[in-house]
């Protein structure tokens, strides 16, 4: 492990993506209250994409202050249906409500990423993906919730595309890494530009 590159996240999927890409880094959870930050940002009337970027910046800067010599990667993702922003469901009933709201409609995943060093933001990027959920039956919805169990509450959209969640969709436009919450290709390009990776 090295302190040169720090991922400001406790997300196992983001960590795995970076490991698979051959990056050497340390993962450190950011000590931020995302809902409190969202409340502070309400007067700015940010769109869902800008909100993802600001949350990513808050994480990157908080960890950067603790590891000033490191290049810190902050990430956040919002899911939106128009201007409505969703959060992870607290229980199965809320998961059912989310899936009913998304059924037969297209929603967007907004993945923000920010690089910081010495408590200063160096770079920010937003990637989006549009996912069209098919019009499934109530019987399918109940079967899906039963099969997913507790996992349905692990993601804001109540699905994992790498699992049975793929059955919810009829079309997807966007980068797979964006959907998983880490826009890896722009990140790698920026790390090369900063001399953190060989070109």
Into which percentage range does the β-strand content fall?
25-35%
How many strands, what sense, and barrel or not for the largest sheet? 7 strands, mixed
CATH class bucket: Alpha Beta
Distance between the termini: 22 Å
- Number of separate structural domains: 1
Helix amount: 25-40%
Q: By helix and strand content, what is the structural category?
A: alpha/beta
Number of helices: 7
Quick check: average pLDDT? 93
Total strands: the figure is 7
Q: Give me the Rg, rounded.
A: 17 Å
Per CATH, the architecture is: Alpha-Beta Complex
Anisotropy-based shape? globular
Order of helices and strands: EHEHHEEHEEHEHH
Low-pLDDT stretches are none
- According to CATH, the fold-level topology is Maf protein
Subcellular location: Cytoplasm
Active site: 76 (proton acceptor)
Protein name: Nucleoside triphosphate pyrophosphatase
InterPro entries: ITPase-like_fam (IPR029001), Maf-like (IPR003697)
């Amino acid at each position: 492990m090295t302190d040169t590159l720090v991922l400001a996240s406790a997300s196992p999927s983001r960590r795995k993506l970076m490991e698979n890409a051959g990056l050497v880094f340390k993962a450190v959870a950011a000590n931020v209250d995302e809902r409190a930050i969202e409340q502070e940002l309400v007067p700015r009337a940010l769109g869902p994409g800008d909100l993802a970027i600001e949350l990513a910046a808050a994480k990157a800067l908080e960890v950067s202050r603790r590891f000033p010599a490191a290049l810190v990667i902050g990430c956040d993702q919002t899911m939106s249906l128009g201007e409505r922003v969703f959060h992870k469901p607290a229980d199965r009933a809320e998961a059912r409500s989310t899936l009913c709201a998304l059924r037969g409609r297209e929603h967007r995943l907004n993945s923000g990423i920010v690089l910081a060093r010495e408590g200063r933001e160096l770079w920010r990027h937003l990637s989006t993906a549009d996912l069209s959920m098919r019009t499934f039956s109530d019987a399918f919805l109940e079967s899906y919730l039963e099969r997913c169990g507790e996992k349905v509450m692990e993601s804001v959209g109540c699905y994992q595309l790498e699992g049975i969640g793929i059955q919810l969709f009829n079309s997807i436009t966007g980068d797979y890494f964006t959907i998983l919450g880490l826009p890896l290709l722009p990140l790698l390009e920026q790390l090369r530009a900063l001399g953190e990776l060989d070109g």
